Structures are given as structure tokens and as C-alpha cells.
Design the sequence.
């Protein structure tokens, strides 16, 4: 790299580190860091020293070569040699991860400055198994996130739309804004609303997506991108949709929908439902494998309400309500030393 190009890269670094880089600056810097491991290590080293010594620099130095020169001069000082060597090791070990993080820097922040200024900054929240999470979005909409689910959403929505990405199950109370539709994207469908209350269930590994409408109106379309495909259904209040992404079939029901959203209140409600459906919900909630053994297990229909019971308490109550029993399979360590997911076997006693 000749001196002119070196000076140009240093200027890009100044703009980047101070949070004033344009999209063109960022694009060029991304191309430069991805061109070689040496370029990436140089960027990481300078960025590390900048962040370590940020409080030493006068604001009058920002966006000038003087600011960067102060950083570069620190590299050979004894107290910074440890950080320099550490950064080199980190670059060698984690170059794919660090490069990926930098290339997708539009979803992060640099120092104390938004980066870049006009890009959306995305967050992701995850509800651990056996728990529920709630959050308020920037437009005033509220979200309840069920066990084992995650939601990706921008810190601030754009002027034209409000898009979030769901893996698992969530209940939404959407703030009304007819000029900006609220769109929930899943692995197989997109759900569009303006101001309404609805539930979406779309767990990874399942080809069934379920949408429940409490009030208002939602449209469900095939596809998960910004350009969704054909319409699957327009839902009206108290309707529940089950869509099979493999066969393309749909089942739209009119019924009391509270049982589908009761989970947000810590309840599991079953109304004459077969054991297989109950087991599926319990398995997801507690992250456990449950196997049904025996003939006619679905002949046992349950009408029950559970509220914040533990897994063992629910299994005991099921056992009292039908001629079934259960046992827990002893977990044996896998070859890598990790333990497999807990497994329960439910069997008929008739």
C-alpha cells in the first residue's frame, strides 16, 4: 500500500471511529478490511487503541489526521503493547467472526456514536425456555414473547413500515398507524396489521404456522421477505388460522380464541384436546422430549387449565385424569460430554 492510499485509509478510519463516516466511506472500508488479514488486523488494532485511549483526545482533533496519529503513536508505547499483541492473536483466531461483525456493522453502534447515522439498528430478544418476556417497541406496540422464542426488531422503525422477525411464538398489541403497516415475518409467512391484537406461532422445525386474531384485522401471505407472495387469508376477530407450508393447506376456524393466547398470562388451557396436542405444547414450553407409547393414546381428551405449574406437577395431574403413567429416561452423556435434552415417556396403563 503506497503512502497516498495509506493516508486515504487512515482518513476513512478517522471518519469511522468518530461516527461521521458516510455510506461510501463505510463501503470502501469494508472492502479494504475484507481484502486481506493484514488489513483487518490493522483496523482492529487501531480501533482497539482508539477505544482504550478515547478519553485522551481533544474533541478539536476529531476528523483530522492529528487524532489518528495520536492513536498510531500509542501502538509502540509499552503500556499498549499487550493490547496490540492481544489484538493480533484475536484477529488470527476470530477473523471470520470479527469480519462478519464488522461487515454487518449497520446493525450495531460504534463507540458512543450511531453507526451509520441513517441505518436501522436492530436488537434481538430471546425468551428462555420456561419463561416469558415482554417488551415495548419504539412505536408504542407491546409484545409478549413465549418460551423458546426470539424477536428481531429495529430500535426505531422507518417512515414506511414496521417490520419485525419472529422465531417461535409472540402475542402483539399493535399501535394503530394506517400509514405504516406492522409486518411480522416468519420462516414461511408474513402477517400484516395496522392496529390490532393478534398471536403468531411459527417455531423452527415445524411446517405449521398459526395466527390468532383477537381484534382488528390481519392479512397472512406466503413468504417471509419484504415482497410476500399470494394471500393465504384475511382474518376477522375470533378467528384462528393453521397454515401448512408443505401442503399449502389452511384451516380457518371461528371460535373462542383465548386458549391460544392464554400463555401470555401464564396459563395453559385445553378444551377437549387430545394428548398429542397437549404434549406438543408442554414439550415446547419446558424444552423436553415427550414420547407417547401405546395404542389409542389420543382417545384421552383433556379439559384443563394449568397456571404456572412445573413440568412434574402437570405430568402428575395428567396421570390423575386418565389411565396413563410416565417415566423419565436417564440421561447419558454424549461423546462430547454434553447431556441430551430431558426425555419423558408417557404410556397407557389400560
Sequence:
Amino acid at each position: 500500500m503506497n503512502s497516498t492510499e495509506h493516508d486515504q485509509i487512515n482518513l476513512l478510519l478517522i471518519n469511522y471511529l468518530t461516527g461521521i463516516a458516510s455510506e461510501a466511506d463505510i463501503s470502501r472500508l469494508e472492502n479494504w478490511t475484507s481484502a486481506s488479514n493484514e488489513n483487518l488486523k490493522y483496523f482492529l488494532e487501531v480501533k482497539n487503541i482508539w477505544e482504550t485511549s478515547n478519553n485522551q483526545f481533544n474533541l478539536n482533533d476529531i476528523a483530522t489526521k492529528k487524532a489518528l496519529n495520536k492513536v498510531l503513536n500509542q501502538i509502540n508505547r509499552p503500556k499498549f503493547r499487550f493490547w496490540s499483541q492481544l489484538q493480533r492473536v484475536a484477529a488470527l483466531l476470530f477473523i471470520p467472526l470479527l469480519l462478519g461483525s464488522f461487515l454487518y456493522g449497520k446493525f450495531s453502534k460504534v463507540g458512543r456514536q450511531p453507526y451509520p447515522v441513517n441505518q436501522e439498528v436492530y436488537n434481538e430478544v430471546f425468551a428462555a425456555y420456561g419463561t416469558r418476556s415482554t417488551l415495548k417497541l419504539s412505536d408504542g406496540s407491546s409484545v409478549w414473547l413465549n418460551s423458546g422464542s426470539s424477536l428481531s426488531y429495529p430500535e426505531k422503525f422507518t417512515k414506511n413500515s414496521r417490520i419485525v422477525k419472529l422465531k417461535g411464538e409472540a402475542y402483539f398489541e399493535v399501535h394503530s398507524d394506517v400509514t405504516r403497516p406492522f409486518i411480522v415475518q416468519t420462516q414461511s409467512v408474513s402477517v400484516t396489521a395496522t392496529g390490532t391484537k393478534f398471536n403468531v406461532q411459527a417455531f423452527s422445525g415445524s411446517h405449521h404456522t398459526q395466527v390468532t386474531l383477537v381484534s382488528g384485522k390481519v392479512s397472512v401471505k406466503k413468504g417471509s421477505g419484504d415482497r410476500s407472495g399470494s394471500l393465504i387469508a384475511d382474518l376477522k376477530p375470533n378467528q384462528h388460522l393453521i397454515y401448512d407450508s408443505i401442503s399449502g393447506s389452511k384451516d380457518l376456524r371461528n371460535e373462542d380464541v383465548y386458549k391460544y393466547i392464554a400463555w401470555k398470562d401464564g396459563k395453559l388451557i385445553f378444551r377437549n384436546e387430545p394428548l398429542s396436542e397437549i404434549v406438543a405444547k408442554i414439550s415446547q414450553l419446558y424444552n423436553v422430549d415427550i414420547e407417547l407409547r401405546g395404542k389409542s393414546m389420543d382417545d384421552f381428551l383433556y379439559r384443563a387449565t394449568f397456571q404456572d405449574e412445573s413440568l412434574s406437577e402437570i405430568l402428575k395431574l395428567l396421570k390423575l385424569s386418565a389411565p396413563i403413567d410416565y417415566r423419565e429416561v436417564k440421561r447419558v452423556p454424549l461423546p462430547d460430554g454434553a447431556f441430551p435434552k430431558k426425555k419423558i415417556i408417557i404410556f397407557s396403563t389400560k
User: Anything to note?
Assistant: Residues 54-65, 75-118 have pLDDT under 50 and may be disordered. The first helix runs from residue 3 to 17.
